[in-house]
Amino acid sequence: MNFGHFIKNIYYLFKINLKKDHERLKSSVDLTQLHNILDSFKYEVLPNSDKPVFASDDECFSLLINSKASICRFGDGELNLCEEKGIPFQKASPQLAERLREVLSSDIPGILIAIPELLYSDRSFYSKCARNFTRNFGCFFIDVLNKYIHPQKTYYPAGITLRYAGISEYDFKKYFDDFIRIWKDKDITIICGKTVFDKIEHNIFDFAKSVEYQYAPSINAFEEYDTVLKQALTINKNRMVIIILGPTATVLAYDLALQGYQALDLGHIAKSYDWYIKKDSCNEQAQANDFYAPD
């Protein structure tokens, strides 16, 4: 939020009588939700307030390109599941919550833990849809994170795979070129749902030296986690493993990294690149709903 918008909001508060309107507000507004929005709002005004230590996108890319670092990402879905709250394509369970909390609270060299930097940032750079979502639910996600993250640990931006969907203006050519450098001229294996690439016309992974696929359930993949992990462990460790499998990818990347693989939980990057090449927009809510819909 810029200073001008902040002054306008303060001016608006002077014009209304919150005490007088209290009863009307109680009948029309979820006050708990309103309190959450106000608590989250401070991160827009004071984006450095109580902020974890974050590496930049460039620092994250450098590690993924120049070392065998793995990455495990936590978005809103993973944080909901940490609290045993289900999401459209993954049922909640105590077992999944326990594994996600284990990964989130871990501190293992070479395994990058990525959390939503948007929660703690100046949100003026983000799309309207991203800002509204964070204002409504950011307080809950910050409360979850505060249970498990370490104040002195460096975290990585979970939104690194979502720049095209979340930010209106960005150097997208450099951004996607940086991603391509991670696997360019390398042998990769992609673990994903069977339908993930059905609508992809421009595949960002075509820049790899070779691509193999292993398929897992698109819905409730964690219900078959033992089978998915057993299959993944047959991959040659000289191959980079890229996982597009919702919250299961977060746990699977962690377990494979512990076994010596470079395993990357990369979420929506294939769809992001395809939409970028086709010049499809994510700025409106209906478009965002289509982008984030289960594949």
List keywords for this structure.
295 residues; alpha/beta; 2 domains; 4-stranded parallel beta sheet; 13 helices; 47% helix
Explain the overall architecture.
- By secondary structure, the protein is of the alpha/beta class.
- The protein has 13 helices and eight strands.
- The strands form two sheets. A four-stranded parallel sheet has the order 1-4-3-2.
- Helix 3 crosses helix 7 (128-148), helix 5 (76-82) packs across helix 6 (94-104) and helix 6 packs across helix 11.
- The model is unreliable at 10-14 (pLDDT under 50).
Spans of at least 5 consecutive residues whose pLDDT stays below 50 are 10-14
| Structural class by sheet pairing and helices | alpha/beta
Count of runs of 4 or more consecutive helical residues: 13
Which percent range describes the beta-strand content? Answer: 5-15%
Rounded mean pLDDT is: 84
Q: Indicate the overall shape.
A: globular
Q: Give helix % range.
A: 40-55%
Report Rg.
Answer: 20 Å
Q: How many separate domains?
A: 2
Write the element-wise H/E pattern from the N-terminal end onward: HHHEHEHHEHEHHEEHEHEHH
Main sheet record: 4 strands, parallel
Q: Say how many strands there are.
A: 8
Report strand order across the widest sheet: 1-4-3-2
| Alpha carbon gap, first and last residue | 33 Å
